[in-house]
Amino acid sequence: MDDDVQRAARKVRDVEQAVSEHVTRSGPITGRASSPDGAVTVVATPGGPPQQIAVSPAALRMGPHGLAAEIMRIADKAQRNANTRLHQTLDRVVDPRELTALGVERGPDEDELGWQR
Amino acid sequence: MRATEQLQRELAALTATVEHPNGTCMVTASPKGEIKALHLHPSLLKQGAQAVGQVVTETVQLATNSAVQISFNKMALALGDGMAIDVESIAGDSPFRSTWNPVVAPKPPAEQAPPERRQRAPRVEDTDDDAFFENPSWLR
Fold first, then answer.
1. What ipTM was reported for this prediction?
2. Which residue, A101, A68, A47, A79, is CA-closest to B53?
3. What domains are there in chain A, each with its CATH number?
4. Which of A55, B20, B31, B79 could be a cystine partner for B68, CB 3.0 to 4.6 Å?
5. What residue of B is the nearest CA neighbor of A49?
C-alpha cells in the first residue's frame, strides 16, 4: 500500500510540475462569464470556488431572489468555461480522461463570452 | 469495496452550508466550488453592489472550504486516519490545516450589516434629585 501511495504521489508531483511549467507560460487558468446586460460577472477557477463575483449597481434592482438566481447561473457558466479552458490548456500534458475522472468536465467549445487568459 | 463505492457516492453528493460572519448571505456549495443554493438578505443589497460581490465571493469560498473539510473528515472516518494523511500528502493539506479556521475568511470580512433599529426603552421617570444634591462635590 505504501509503495502504491508513493508511486501515486510521485506521479502527481510529476504532473504538477509539468502543469505548473505549462501554466507559468500560459498564465492562470480561469473562466469568465457575464449576464447579457452586464448585471453579474464571475471569474471562476477550474474545480474551485469563484475567484471574483462582480455585481453592477443596476443588478440590485433584481431583488435578493432574482440576483441570487442570476449569480448562480453565471457562476455555473464561468466554472464550465474554466473547466473547458483547463482541458484545452492541458490536453498535451494530462490525459483528458484523467481530468474528467477528477471531476473537471469539458464543456462545449463554442464559448461566446470569451476566456480570460 | 462496497464501502469505497458508498464513500464515493457520499462525496459526490456532499455539500456544506455556511453563513457569512455578517449574517447577510448564506451559501450551499460543493467541494468543487459549485454554488448549489444562495440566499441574500435584503439588507446586503442596501450596502451596495461592491459589497454584494465581495460578501458572496467570501461566502462561497467559506462554504467550499467547509465542504472540502467535510470530505476529508468523511474519508478519514471511512478509510482511517492513515489513508487520510496519505491523501493529504498527495492532494495537499485539508482546509483545517491550511487555514486557521475553515469556516472563517482569512482576510477581514466585508463590513458588518448595520444593526437593526430598535425602539429605545422608555426612560424611567426619576424625580428624586435629593441624592445628587446631597453630595456637594458633584455640584462644582
1. 0.70
2. A68
3. 27-116 (3.30.1310)
4. B31
5. B33
